[in-house]
Amino acid sequence: MIATSHSDQLKRDDVKYVWHHYAQMKEYSEEPLVLEKAEGVCVEDIEGRKYIDAVSGVSVANIGYGNRQVIDAMKRQLDKLTYNCLLYSSSVPTISLARKLAEITPKGLEKVFFTDSGSDAVEAAIKMARQYHYQTSAPTKFKTISRWISYHGSTIGALSATGRPVHRQPFAPLLLDFPHIPPPYCYRCPFGKEYPSCDLDCARYLETTMNFEGSENISSFIAEPIIGLTGAGIVPPDEYFPMIREICDRYNVLLILDEVITGFGRTGKMFACMHWNVTPDILVGAKGITSGYAPMAITVTKPEIWEAFWAESSRLFSDGHTYGGNPLSCSAALEVIDVIEKEGLVEKSASLGEYLRCELEKLDHKIIGDVRGKGLLVGVELVKNQDTKETFDPSLKIGAKIARKAFERGVKIFGMRLIEEMGDFLCMCPPLIIKKDQIDTIINVVDQSMTEVEKSL
User: Fold this and answer.
1) Would the pTM count as exceeding 0.90?
2) The pLDDT of residue 397 is above 90
């Protein structure tokens, strides 16, 4: 614990010098949070207060904090090789990790392009799909279709695919002309229908959009298998992705699945697309691959796509990142995957995630509209009226208030509203190493925090 005067100075310096990501700095400045250390599923601030990190940082710390196996491996790597540029050479950890990723990703994916962050990896996937078509038999294909209520990153290409209007609006003149389609959001069906009589219009609309835009112009379709922090764990019907896969195949459109949040055990499978036995043409991963121990992201593709770049020098993939495939990050990722496999964290995520979701469904609160998710990615949509699904006035910030009350009780959850058409929501995605009694604490804190906020309405 840092002395009070020093901690106050750190908070002042934080607000004065650090520009926080996606944060309204005036609001943040009212209660800045400076963390000092972490262990397991808990983080501790500079004043010694501990919190259960029920969001894994931002769905990153899948194996938790302070894992000695990972830390010791990184220390050993520091003594060997700290940097390599993939422009002209490789490294032992990079090769070992690529081989391991070819083993654990869906069958057929085996060519790994390394980047630094999820945004970079999505950007690479979009560019890879475009250049693949350009160099094969479909040079007019350049557009990527994506979905509303989605997040794919903050770089221009990734933001063009992102379906959060609030984040797109300031940069609208800069964005690429990427079409968006409605998501498989059964709780608030964009088509006003009910599953299963809906005939999966949300999937069929992909084909409709391809026809409107001209399928000869469509390069790829990108989607999160389960909509993460934008939709608080929206899970599609079982038929959705097999149907999407068939449509993409029929129109020679590459399917990109963004597993930045859902990958590496988060949803109870190593990758969420495995719930439906669907293999994308390109898979994007980040966050959980290193569990936050070092920056790392991947874009993994099928050999037939990679082969389109194997020939004359003019066919090289025109993309690269200074820290892509960094030996230190790769050594961390290898150990993280080893921990996930040896400790059975994928299976643990499935069982404890089911427990968390079911217990949240039992909570008796009139403001709970929908509880959803898979594995340890669970969301609660909040409503003013359960029967009509009427949302709260956004200015009330109901989700944020509940999250604040939970934080005061020692549990960090997400509570927000990102899409006008949705209600406020809570989202929980704790580390996969979490124990049942810690999940019980999360549930009790959420229950108490909801009760307190409800009384104030």
Assistant:
1) yes
2) yes
